[in-house]
Amino acid sequence: MALRDNKGRPLVAVTGMGVVTSIGLGKDETWGAVTSGKSGIKRISRFPTEGLRTTIAGTIDTLDVEPMSAPLLSERLAMLAADEAVGQSGLPESDFPGALFIAVPPVEMEWPQREALAEASGQDGDITYRDLLKAASTGKFKAWHDLFIFGTVADRVADKFGTRGSPISLSTACSSGATAIQLGVEAIRRGETDAALCIGTDGSVNPESLVRFSLLSALSTQNENPETASKPFSKNRDGFVMGEGGAALVLENADAARARGAKILGYVLGCGEKGDGFHRTRSSPDGAQGIAAIRAALDDAGLAPDAIDYINAHGTSTPENDKMEAMSCTAVFGERMQKVPISSNKSMIGHTLTAAGAVEAVLSLLTIATGRIPPTINHTLPDPTIPLDVVPNVARDANVRYVLSNSFGFGGQNTCLVFGAEPK
Question: Is the pLDDT of residue 406 over 80?
Fold first, then answer.
């Protein structure tokens, strides 16, 4: 009998997962650290931080990438995560039988590269962006020209894994990783493909990013004790901490996966996406579209709110976003929200931005598989306006069948996913 979801569509199974974070290269290492409450936040050593308001981040410093840049590191993280995911799935590692959907950070030249190109341009006086591009497209800098084109990371990943069709690159702010998964789910449901490789990746910890987020007053400035700076849902939270990471899921039509004897790790049962257009960076303070995204994901999965056993929070540790997420969840789950465990892994790995939704998808599925809920660490001063069970400081064993994973991005780009151990 064909495996179909509650709406008669092909059921979408997960057959492979991979993840790289500041606390682990691979899902086993990352999961062990997350459930132990280990923090990957530390002082930045990759570049000088004098004069910066924030000097900490969840960087991944064990990978040798030269020249160090967001596109190259993002590519490397994507490759490592996809290697692990495709390897676990048992599908061909260089002839992947499906499409690629990859969330990548917005790409532009960083200051060190711009300075080198400005010098190489030979121009006196004011140097235009056109001058930089011209210098980058010739001679020894031609590789840079290719590197800083949006879509290059996707092309290289597609070439390595032999994915079908044109790869899809996307960027929907902090919900990007979840959006990549949603696009893969929808393609399989429509019958366009039997498999999809969905990736979120981000290696954007650099001086420019720190300055830009600081100008938005979005980053924590609690530099004295890096490991305790990210404290979602706490009264003394003051901003998010940037992190780097990459994660990948192999999605398959459940019938096709079963036919080839693949081990099914879980299912993506529901996707909900709503944009509020309230502000270029802020979400609407009434949480209307966050609420709508959660409800849409539950409806798509055919589940009532009472069915959710755990919520993997967006939980950035910013004053406004945490309050909005708590309000949105309470609006959907009502009084039960005070009893539903909700925790944020960003307290340990920081906010991996474009990769966050994919990283949290892997952690959600591992929560289901192991029956262990990751904690929200650094929760020593609860916020009385957020009376939720945030699984404070220590992981918890529980029977978890269905997980809601929230991704609420800058500009009100809200994507929620529902994962399950079994079909509804």
Answer: yes
